[in-house]
Amino acid sequence: GGGFMNTDFGFSQATPQRKESNRPDNVVPCTIAQIHRMGEGEDHMTVAGLEVQYVTVVGLVTHVDQQSTKVSYTVDDRTGPPLEGHIFATEPEEQARILSQLVEGTYVRVVGSVRSVDGRRMLKTFRAFGLTDLNELTMHLAEVIHTHMALLVDSKKAPAEDRVDGGGMVKPEPMDTSTFGGGVANNSLGLEPKQNMVYELIRECRTTIGISLDEVCAKVKSLSRAAIKDVVEFLSNEGHIYTTMDDCHYKATDGF
């Protein structure tokens, strides 16, 4: 893989541009040690045999450097040597927003793609979220272990491209929606049953990046993808949910 390109891969950009259209579109939780274990000459990560497009890492911000075209930082999760990352942004407002999330001495969740420059691993970052709850550290490690083990088990059952959904997590089992009937749902928001079903599913997700539309569709088998998208749009317009790392990942405004 090549070095960092000075592109419009900005902090506010919804989705990154990919040079290789045949690469999988997934986000997989990992540790810095896993990134550093990439073999010489490899330009992409694999986790349990799955090719990874984007990774999410949680760690302590140890250094931040603001430049005219980007913000560089170093993050350390104590599993390996600290990892250097870059977020390209030229507008002062964008840089200020980035710096509000990347504060030395605080914990952060970063999402990006791994690059190799002169034998060093770096993270071309497109999202950074300052942690507000340190329980996310434990949750992230649990996600790393769960994803790795589940992929190892599932690798015997399906091809790599079928093992992880668009959100980068192992494909879940379908949700039992047989208990959701017609009429008005019994909930404090006054949502219809299908709206409340999708809302509660999004609300139960406790990770910073939220739950992806693909994950919701995989769990809610009683609704078509088009119907789920309509519900998600309604919930977003009503202010019940919001997008996180891109336009296809959601968290509830009143999450717990």
TrEMBL record:
<dbReference type="InterPro" id="IPR036390">
    <property type="entry name" value="WH_DNA-bd_sf"/>
</dbReference>
<feature type="domain" description="Replication protein A C-terminal">
    <location>
        <begin position="184"/>
        <end position="247"/>
    </location>
</feature>
<dbReference type="GO" id="GO:0003697">
    <property type="term" value="F:single-stranded DNA binding"/>
</dbReference>
<keyword id="KW-0539">Nucleus</keyword>
<dbReference type="InterPro" id="IPR012340">
    <property type="entry name" value="NA-bd_OB-fold"/>
</dbReference>
<dbReference type="InterPro" id="IPR014892">
    <property type="entry name" value="RPA_C"/>
</dbReference>
<dbReference type="GO" id="GO:0005662">
    <property type="term" value="C:DNA replication factor A complex"/>
</dbReference>
<dbReference type="InterPro" id="IPR014646">
    <property type="entry name" value="Rfa2/RPA32"/>
</dbReference>
<keyword id="KW-0235">DNA replication</keyword>
<dbReference type="GO" id="GO:0006289">
    <property type="term" value="P:nucleotide-excision repair"/>
</dbReference>
<dbReference type="Pfam" id="PF08784">
    <property type="entry name" value="RPA_C"/>
</dbReference>
<dbReference type="InterPro" id="IPR040260">
    <property type="entry name" value="RFA2-like"/>
</dbReference>
<dbReference type="GO" id="GO:0000781">
    <property type="term" value="C:chromosome, telomeric region"/>
</dbReference>
<feature type="region of interest" description="Disordered">
    <location>
        <begin position="1"/>
        <end position="25"/>
    </location>
</feature>
<comment type="similarity">
    <text>Belongs to the replication factor A protein 2 family.</text>
</comment>
<protein>
    <submittedName>
        <fullName>Putative single-stranded dna-binding replication protein a rpa medium 30 kd subunit</fullName>
    </submittedName>
</protein>
<keyword id="KW-0238">DNA-binding</keyword>
<dbReference type="GO" id="GO:0006260">
    <property type="term" value="P:DNA replication"/>
</dbReference>
<dbReference type="GO" id="GO:0035861">
    <property type="term" value="C:site of double-strand break"/>
</dbReference>
<dbReference type="InterPro" id="IPR036388">
    <property type="entry name" value="WH-like_DNA-bd_sf"/>
</dbReference>
<dbReference type="GO" id="GO:0000724">
    <property type="term" value="P:double-strand break repair via homologous recombination"/>
</dbReference>
